[in-house]
Amino acid sequence: MKNVKAPTSRSYQEFLIESLRNAREAAGYIEVTLTEASDEPKLLQMVLKDIVDSRLKFHNLSESAQIQWEKLDKMLTASAGAEIYCFVELLEALGFKLGITVEESELRVDSGSTNIEGSELSPEPANL
Fold it and tell me: What is the pTM of this model?
């Protein structure tokens, strides 16, 4: 087989980090992970890390959020998020649905930086 060079393009991770700059994208990403990925418990930790990395890259992570992430990251490393997924499953068994929303203050900040009309990561926007 001949050496074939694939065209170079932006990596998926770069695209993801850029997309997560949008608060609605990040909310949808978390919501889907919580409601659809209970069989992959480490996924929640990876999703939250992607969001934190995005906020860090664009200088939009408060010191308080950084501290809370570090605490949660340690807990998720120990438990793989089992308690969180169990809670979500209990809510569903009781007939409730978990939804992740964006604070109004985040929407105002976010609207100047990226397009918030449509979702680039999933066909449906977060439950707002």
Answer: 0.72
